[in-house]
C-alpha cells in the first residue's frame, strides 16, 4: 500500500514537472561582442551575455532585466576556480535558457509582466557586477570588470529599444539580487528620465550576522570580495563615505540611501544564508549542522531556536528598507532560496502566499501602485503554503 501511494505521488510530481516545463520557453543567448573592446568582460575576458525574449503588444516598451545568481569569489584562488566555468566565462554558458516565473510569457502565469521585454543577464564577474580593476595579471588572466560589464549590457539593450522604455525593472536572484540593489540607482541614471524605473531583489538581502561560532565570517568574506575586485569605487558613496567599503556590500547599509523604488523578496530562513552565513563549514567542523542545512525538518530543537533568532536578526536588518510606499517586500517563512524565477513559487496553484497574496501579485501591486505591499510572514512552521527546499 505504501509503495502504491509513493508511486502515485511520484507520478503526480512528474506530471507537474512536465506541465511546468511545457509552459516555459527556451530563449537563445546573446553575446555583447562590442564590450570586449571596452574591457567590459567576464572573469576570463570573454564578452558578457544575456538571453532576450522580446515584448509584444502593450508590453513592447516595457523592460524587465533579471540578473542570475552564482555567489562570489574573494581572492585569486577562488576566482581562478570559477574563471573557466559558466559563472566566469560566457564561453561555458549554455546557448539556451528556459524562462518561467517572472520571465514567463504566459498571462496566466505572469499577469503583470508576461508581454514585457524580458532579459536574463548571465552572471560571470564574481562580485555582483561591482568590480573594476584596470590591471590584468597575465599569469592568471583574471579580469575584475563587472561594473563595466553591467554598463555595457545596459547600453546594448538601449540600442535594441530600451531607450524608448516606458517602464523598466532591474531585478535578480541571489548574487544577482544583490547586484540589483547595489546597481539600482546606477541603472536609474542610465535610463531615460521619462522611464518609470524600479528595482527588485529576490533572495539578495544578505545580512551581516555572526555565525554559530561567534565569528564574523560573512563580513570578512565580503571585505575580501570588495578588495579583490576593486568594488569600492562602484558602491554607493552615501555608504562608503561613512563606513568600510566591505560593509557597503550588505544591503542593510545601502538601502536607506537608495533613491529608486525597491522591492525585496526573501525567505526569512533563506537557505543560502543559513548554510553559509549562520552555519558555514568553518564554524561547524564536526558537521553537526549538515542534516539541518539539507532539510529544515531535520533540525534539532536547539538548531531551530538558533534559526528563529536568525530570523529576528534578519527582520531587524530588513527594517532599513523603511515603510515608504515606494518600498515593497514579501518575506515568507520558507526554507528556500530564490522564488521569483521559478513558476511553482512565483505563481502556481499552490505557490507560497502571505496574507492570502502570492509573490506575483505582491510585486505587481507594488510596481503598479495598486496598494502598498509590505508583507512579512509569521515564524516557521506557520505557513503551510511554503515550498521548503531539500538541498545537496
From TrEMBL:
Protein keywords: Cell wall, Cell wall biogenesis/degradation, Hydrolase, Secreted, Signal
Pfam families, sorted: PAE
Any GO molecular function: hydrolase activity
Cleavable signal peptide: 1-24
Domain of life from the UniProt record: Eukaryota
Subcellular localization, as worded in the UniProt entry: Secreted, Cell wall
Listed EC numbers: 3.1.1.-
Broadest EC class assigned to this enzyme: hydrolase
Purpose of the protein: Hydrolyzes acetyl esters in homogalacturonan regions of pectin. In type I primary cell wall, galacturonic acid residues of pectin can be acetylated at the O-2 and O-3 positions. Decreasing the degree of acetylation of pectin gels in vitro alters their physical properties.
Protein family (similarity comment): Belongs to the pectinacetylesterase family.
Name this polypeptide is given: Pectin acetylesterase
Organism: Eucalyptus globulus (Tasmanian blue gum)
